[in-house]
Design a protein that fits this description.
The protein is mostly helical and 35 residues long. The protein is rod-shaped.
Length: 35
Amino acid sequence: VFGNAVKYMGLLGAVLFIIIVGATAILLKGRQKAQ
C-alpha cells in the first residue's frame, strides 16, 4: 500500500512539474509577443 502511495506522489509531482514548465513557457512566449 505504501509503495502505491509513493507511485501516486511521484506521478502527481511529475504532472505538476510539467504543468508549471508549460505555463512558464506560455507566459514567456506571451511576453515576447507583447514586446
